[in-house]
Known about the structure:
The protein is α+β, with helices and mostly antiparallel strands. The chain is about 45% helix and about 15% strand. The chain binds zinc ion.
Amino acid sequence: MEAILNIYTVEEICRGFTYNEAEGKGLFGLSGRLTIQPEYQRNYLYAEQNGAREIAVIESILNSYPIGLIYFNKIDDQHLEVLDGQQRITSLGRFLTKKFAVRDKNGMEQYFDSLPEDKQSKILNTKLLVYECEGTESDIKEWFKTINIAGIPLNEQEVLNAVYSGSFVTRAKEEFSNSQNANINKWSAFIRGNVRRQDYLHTALEWVSRGNVSEYMSQHRNDTDIKELKTYFNSVLDWVNSVFEVVEKEMCSLPWGELYEKYHTKPYNPQQVKETQQRLYENYYVKNKRGIYEYILGGCQDTKLLEVRCFDEPTKKSVYARQTEEAKRHEVSNCPLCAIGHDANHARIWKLTEMDADHVTAWSKGGVTDITNCQMLCQAHNRAKGNK
Ligand SMILES: [Zn+2]
């Protein structure tokens, strides 16, 4: 039995995708050359449980997480069928043909054609690694058993190292996959994973290639040095260390390459950064400590990154009661912004469930999250204020 590795884009694999609604099967891809669901395969399961699994496939791709290896069986020169990966491929095909939607950051449902163009092309251009096996069915089954007994399947970077083996990979592994390298300890503050399973090399490649690892490896396959890879990697970490003097455990595995690209030309005062960082760490209301870094780099504007804790229920109820009582006395709305307006809501008394709690002085401007700084606004006004 023979197996070769191939790389296809999502667009190629899903070209000509058809889905049989009646039988619940994804049928064809690769312009008809690929049978996605041979008779002996299970039916499509990822649409169950409200599609949680098929949505996860799309979200993985949008987040640049690998969705794993795929195996095809080569029937003849023109025809392939899916041995392993039919559920993932069917999810992709169903999304591209608008059979289901994912939710964006604001909780809005987005079908493929309503996604922004850069996200559409990210999905279409995502590369999938495919093993194409050729042999008798028993050969293939035997081989499957072997790779499973061998236990740990190859991860994405291990496969890429095999595909693009050559002088570049050899040099790169000496530097980034060598547990004897004295720098590993220092790097481990920012990179998570296993040196020998190529996680450090993968991160270094992701950074220098801006996420296009396989393309980069193919371009540099025959390079005899890794100068650019090494220099870029060190620039990113030197920059992080120069901005943030205090290293916290939440800094591990943040997307430092992306943050470097976005912010490294901006000036920062390390002393000020250190104080802000400490203040945010001590602040009970900051729920997402990992968000502190991008928040600081972005000039302390985007509080969404911090997932600030909200007002608690007793506070909301008591502020609501006070506002409503006062509003009724003056015959105006219990939403202070409706009350100063002149439209139909001027005197409207909203129910508690129709209102949201708002910081009078914005949290980012030092406003506290307690009853002294809480007002209830109708949902429309709260939303309008939040967008400013
Ligand atoms: Zn209002």
